[in-house]
Design brief:
heterodimer, A: alpha+beta, Gyrase A, domain 2, Alpha-Beta Plaits, Elongation Factor Tu (Ef-tu), domain 3, 7 helices, 19 strands, 34% strand, B: alpha+beta, OB fold (Dihydrolipoamide Acetyltransferase, E2P), six-stranded antiparallel beta sheet, 21% helix, globular
Chain lengths: 347, 131
């Protein structure tokens, strides 16, 4: 167990990180992600507030729909990356990173002053379990009273999971199909055990933080604190698709609009280590013998069986095929910029 | 349950060495491989490199992290286990046999006396667990 933002969380379960990772790619895995925070915004001007504080266009959301978005600083950088769930036109449910919950809540509250909307930190009200992998639907379906096939990717429904009222969202952080289920923490142990039991025949495995990290990295999903933070802009992070400059004003919009026009000087890209060896977080990156950056996330990729990573590179060295060197504790390993995501599931 | 063969010497850093005359074969213990989890990379020295006792001679890496390998006694590398390049998981499946790491020519086999016996190492592990 390790301390993760005040939560005791297992790095891995007895099967080990590789087995857990492969279970999610080929069958199903279950993650306890109750550490994730929840912030709810309600009121007549809830949408206006969400539009001001986030970069994606929440006006496009229908009831029951979800979007990946960012809470932004005036500099166009990240307060956090988030999932915005539209419960009703005047009620938004935002899932945020655990370690950022307090900071995000304070930030949203500060922006809310002039709006007819209330902001609540409801993190303590929810357990969150993520069931991920191609067999998630088959495993979860017998336990719930809604037709999961009718929930499209990035949509949610309310329903019962073995008698417990829950929000069932078709989202995840693994690059696989799957569901994230939010419900009363009092029931979490029972539901956890019942899902594992239901998936036993399909080979479901409980998965820890290490597999969560390798899975999201293969899918090139950013990790706050590693790949994105208050110093990186959305455009540098290659997340222009959640940066809807045309939706109207939002915090950081002006900076991002100027950056878009001028072009970014650096960009978050994926690389593959071509020498033998593993690039890890924070290893220096060299081009022509000079240190230009550091690895933001680096790890073996258990499904791809490669050693991969993410890093911000000067824009002129960010094209696919560009060679870089990585200093791994004094050894210089050759690596090359590659297309991302590293892994994409067959739909 | 981890096992610790009687014919090996152990260190508190969880390496073992098996003396073969003036040579010694070095690897990591069953306890170490269990703690590390799935091993995905082993970085070993080149033949001819010389190390003192307790020097770092390589690294072993799991998905999540890496650990340094320390040489139990002084010596010169005379053989490395090339199989570990493509099959690092041998360290997990066979830590005392196929998962051996390097063979050295010992500088002074008297240094072996400062190492732990199988039972001393097992006691050491138990005492660590109690902490």
């Amino acid at each position: 167990m390790i301390d993760f933002g005040g939560w005791d969380m297992p790095v891995q379960y007895p099967a080990g990180t590789i087995e857990e990772h492969l279970a999610v790619r080929t069958s199903a895995g279950l993650f306890d992600v109750s550490h994730m925070g929840e912030i709810e915004i309600r009121g007549p001007q809830a949408l206006e507030l969400v539009q001001l504080i986030t970069s994606n266009d929440a006006a496009k959301l229908a009831e029951g729909q979800i979007q990946y978005s960012a809470l932004t600083y005036p500099e166009g950088t990240f307060v956090d990356d988030i999932l915005v769930h539209c419960i009703r036109g005047d009620y938004f449910f935002i899932c945020v990173n655990a370690a950022n919950t307090e900071k995000d809540y304070e930030w949203v509250l500060r922006q809310a002053g002039n709006f007819d909307a209330e902001v609540f930190n409801t993190s303590a009200n929810y357990s969150q379990l993520a069931i991920q992998g191609p067999k998630s639907l088959a495993v979860l379906q017998p336990l719930v009273d809604v037709d999961l096939a009718e929930i499209k990717y990035y949509w949610f429904r309310r329903g019962q999971v073995n008698g417990v009222s829950a929000m069932i969202a078709r989202t995840g952080y693994t690059g696989e199909d799957g569901f994230e289920v939010y419900f009363d923490p009092a029931e979490s142990e029972r539901i956890w055990n019942e899902i594992l039991e239901a998936g036993n025949e399909q080979g479901i495995l409980p998965c820890g933080l290490a597999a969560r990290n390798t899975l999201r990295l293969e899918a090139k999903m950013a990790l706050y604190g590693n790949d994105i933070d208050q110093t990186t802009t959305l455009l540098e992070a290659d997340l222009g698709w959640i940066c809807k400059l045309g939706k109207g004003d939002f915090i950081g919009r002006d900076v991002l609009a100027r950056q878009k026009e001028a072009g970014v000087q650096r960009k978050l890209v994926g690389f593959e280590v071509t020498d033998r060896g593993i690039a890890r977080d924070h290893n220096p990156i060299l081009i022509d013998g000079k240190e230009v950056s550091v690895v933001s996330s680096g790890s073996p990729a258990p499904f791809l069986k490669k050693n991969i990573g993410l890093a911000y590179l000067p824009i002129e060295h960010s094209t696919i095929g560009s060679p870089i060197e990585i200093d791994v504790r004094g050894r210089r390993l050759a690596a090359v910029v590659v297309q991302t995501p590293f892994y994409k599931r067959n739909k | 349950m981890a096992t610790y063969p009687d014919n090996l010497y152990y260190t508190k850093d969880h390496e073992w060495i098996r003396a073969e005359g003036e040579s010694g074969v070095v690897g990591v213990s069953d306890f170490a491989q269990e703690q590390l989890g799935d091993i995905v990379h082993v970085q070993l020295p080149k033949i001819g490199e010389k190390f003192s006792a307790h020097d770092t001679f390589g690294e072993v890496e799991s998905v999540k992290t890496f650990s340094e390998l320390y040489l139990p006694v002084s010596g010169e590398v005379i053989e490395v286990n090339e199989l570990l390049t493509d099959s690092p998981e041998l360290v997990n499946s066979s830590p005392y046999d196929e998962g051996w790491m390097i063979k050295i020519k010992m500088k002074d086999s008297g240094e072996l006396d400062s190492l732990l016996s199988s039972s001393e190492y097992e006691d050491f592990i138990e005492s660590q667990k109690e902490d």
